[in-house]
Amino acid sequence: MRVSKGALLVGIVLLVPFVIELRTVLSWFGVEITVTESILVGLALALAITAWALWPPNGDAEAADRS
């Protein structure tokens, strides 16, 4: 795991205001997204961060297990 569980939790929690403010910024440019779309974006970002955090740092888990 690349980061601690606490740091991962903090990173995911910080996505909430980021996604909310993203809706605000996009509305300034005339791009309107629904609450459902915002939730989907937030879930996709949380999944991406979790996948990154759980992926082995060197990208090759089998080689790390053998050495």
Keywords:
73% helix; mainly alpha; 4 helices; 67 residues; elongated
Task: Report on this structure.
With 67 residues, the chain is mainly alpha-helical. The protein has helices spanning 5-13, 15-28, 35-54, 61-66. It starts with a helix and ends with a helix.
Question: How are the elements arranged and paired?
Answer:
Blueprint: H1 5-13, H2 15-28, H3 35-54, H4 61-66
Helix pairs in contact: 2-3
User: Helix/strand-derived class?
Assistant: mainly alpha
* Nearest-integer average pLDDT: 88
Number of strands: 0
Please tell me how large the radius of gyration is.
Answer: 16 Å
Taken as a percent bin, the fraction of beta residues is under 5%
Q: How does the major sheet shape up? A: none
Q: What best-fitting shape do the alpha-carbon axes yield?
A: elongated
Roughly how much helix do the residues carry, as a percent range?
over 70%
Integer count of domains? 1
With helices defined by DSSP (H or I, 4 residues minimum), what is the helix count? Answer: 4
The rounded distance between the terminal residues' Cα atoms is 17 Å
- How would you spell out the order of helices and strands? HHHH
